Amino acid sequence: MVAANLDQVVVVAALADPPFRPGFVDRVLSQAEHAGIPARLVLNKVDLGEASEAESILKDYAHAGYPGHGLNARSGDGLESVRHACQARRSLLIGHSGVGKSTMLNALIPGADQLAGEVNTKTGRGKHTTTARS
Range of 43's domain? Predict the structure, then answer.
């Protein structure tokens, strides 16, 4: 992970569709910590699962020192918290395909116009719609 000119790492994960993968999140957070970069978790698609499950995940990561945000990027619920956390910061958004990174960016940045794809119904995985930096 390259730390040059980076203020924070934002790990974007979904509660469901695709399912939450703690191993991936843990690896990214570990690498960010190793590089000396502050990191946080955005748990998207919280509307697709049990509220208690989302709260439990966010609480566990907060207890480990990583701030977290519950989000429904499509409806905008929780968006202001994420906007505030990213405001005036250079942030690296990282997450599996299909977790809602592009949808979140489109909601945060008017005119971003990132393509947002659907999750493959057969595999439950994203379709690698967007690979970009700005």
Answer: 8-95
What is the rounded distance in angstroms from the CA atom of residue 27 to the CA atom of residue 89?
22
Cis peptide before 67 (omega within 30 of 0): no
Domain membership of residue 66 (yes or no) is yes
33-43-94-16 Cα dihedral, nearest 10 degrees: 130
pTM: 0.82
Residue 45, burial from CB neighbour count under 10 angstroms (0-12, 13-18, 19+): buried
Question: Which pLDDT tens digit goes with each residue over 20-65?
Answer: 999 999 999 999 999 999 999 999 999 999 999 999 999 999 999 9
